[in-house]
Amino acid sequence: MWTLITTLLTRWVALKALLKALGSLGWLLPLAFVLKAIGIPALILLAILGLPLLIVLFVFGLPLILVVVVGGALLGFTFWMLSLGLVVLKLALPVIVIIWLVRAFTKKGSQTPEPPPATP
Fold it and tell me: Is the pLDDT of residue 67 over 60?
C-alpha cells in the first residue's frame, strides 16, 4: 500500500512540475504564431530576393566578406522596407475600412428609384 501511495504522489508531483514548466512558456505562444505568420513569408521573400544577388556578387569576384556585408546590407534594407510596409498597412487598413463603411451606409440612403421612361 505504501508503494502505491508513493508511486501516485511521485507521478502527481512530476505531472505538476511538467505542467508548471509548460505553463510558464505559454506567453511565448502568441509570439510564435506571429512569427510563423509573418516571419516565414518574410524569410521566403528575403531568400528569393537575396540569393540571386549574393550569387551575382560572388560571380563578380568580390571577396567573400564583402559579398556577405553588401548582401546583408541589401537584405536588411529589404526587410526594413517590408516591415515598414506592414506598419503602414496596419495603420491604413482601419482607415480604409471606415471610409468604405461610411460610403456604403451613405449610398444606401441617397439612392432613389428612377422614374419609368415616358412613352410617346
Answer: yes
Closest CA to 51 of 78, 29, 71: 71
The overall average pLDDT reported for the chain is 78
Written in H, E and C, the secondary structure of 71-93 is: HHHHHHHHHHHHHHHHHHHHHHH
DSSP track, the chain: -HHHHHHHHHHHHHHHHHHHHHHHTTTHHHHHHHIIIIIHHHHHHHHHHHHHHHHHHHHTT--HHHHHHHHHHHHHHHHHHHHHHHHHHHHHHHHHHHHHHHHHHHHHHH--PPPPPPP-
pLDDT tens digits along 7-54: 887 888 887 777 777 676 666 767 677 777 777 777 777 777 777 877
The answer to whether 49 touches 82, Cβ cutoff 8 Å, is no
